[in-house]
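Revision sheet: structure tokens.
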Amino acid sequence: MFRRPLDFLNSLPTRGDLVELRLGPLRAWMACHPDVARRILVETRIFDKGGPLYNRLRPLMGNGVVTCDQDTHRRQRRLLQPGFRPSRVADHTDLIGREAESLCREWRAGDRIDVSAAAMTLTTRVMNHVLFSDSLRGAAAAEVGDCLAVIVRGLFVRTAVPVDALFRLPTPANRRYRRAFDRVHAIVDEVIAERRRRSPNGDREDMLDTLLAATRCAASGITEQEVHDQLVTLLLTGSESPSNCLASALDLLARNPEAERRLHAEVDAVVADRPLPGPDELPRLTYTRCVVAETLRHRPPGWLFTRITTKDTTLAGHRLPRGTTVLYSPYLLHHDPASFPDPERFLPERWLPGRAIADPHGAMLPFSAGNRKCIGDTFAWAEATLALATIAGRWRLRHLPGHAERLRPAATLGPRSLVMTCEPRAHAPAGTAPGARSLAPRATAATRAQDSRTAGDNGADDV
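Predicted:
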């Protein structure tokens, strides 16, 4: 589980629908069949948020919508849901396109681009606007991205090896994790304090204003601490997972030329001479959405989750006492050939409309299911589709000579230091001139050297 987690997960279905395993001194049960996983997700009163993963996330995210228990979840979701309704997502489509275009405008033919860092820069900028109306200034936004990269590397090993004493030792990795942890919380507190000084009456339509307005209403039940917790939660989840999805999509397209060709053809036809894809083009980017769907199947950013039983129960024929840790893995379910034939192949076509049912067993769970399903799933679909279409309309990304796939699971799954070479597309939207020189500063994500600490096989990141 620690050294080769993806291979380990793929080996489990041969042992049954529910498999007992050990996480350090802890016994846990892994759901290996989609019906078992869906029962865990739907019966939230029996299988509540908990276990090693959420024990590690709660100090980071507090009592936010991701980590709160079932009793408080409904109230929190009702508070946040208006910000993620389809109408609000449509309002943000132009923003996503502009940020994606701004990022890749600075690339030059032949540049080596750290795609992982570029994707994180993009998603952090988008969340900065959605949450804070760009109150997070340039240097602070870049610092948040760097801190999140350190945090997600450390979270997985703290889940796989739930022995607290190891992580209290003053090792370099533990000190890095603590510094990043403290800095993210400090930055969010600074943004909240600045907003209270500059706009005390709420004149911005962003999540921060929504939360601060709720604190002025006694009936909402929201505290000052919960404002902080929700913002940290949304900043972390809204930046890290979408950036992994986008980087993985660009990586997988470079490995699959036919899928890349079909994507480019669709983008050229749908976007045509428009500078950017927008809300009118989004529903017509059918194959682009299929690429995103297959990326989420092949490499789900959220790849391993835990739950805790709140009462004695029976699951897949096994008696589980109260307090038992159960796990489910979208990666495992998405790579089971019983649900997805030829699961290792990247086949966006399997999601095209009119095709045979791509997921006959309901195993596709990139955003979870039930009433704890990701609150931002609609936003994430739109963001990934529009960002991918914007980049693909301008650039073709290629792996460096001798590149080998190095998937290193951490709290999320995706390429960690993916460096690629960019080639301008022959067809590019009007006014973008991919090879043209710009007077704007070059993107910080370009030409970054690969970090030797994150190179290697598919084991856990160095901590």
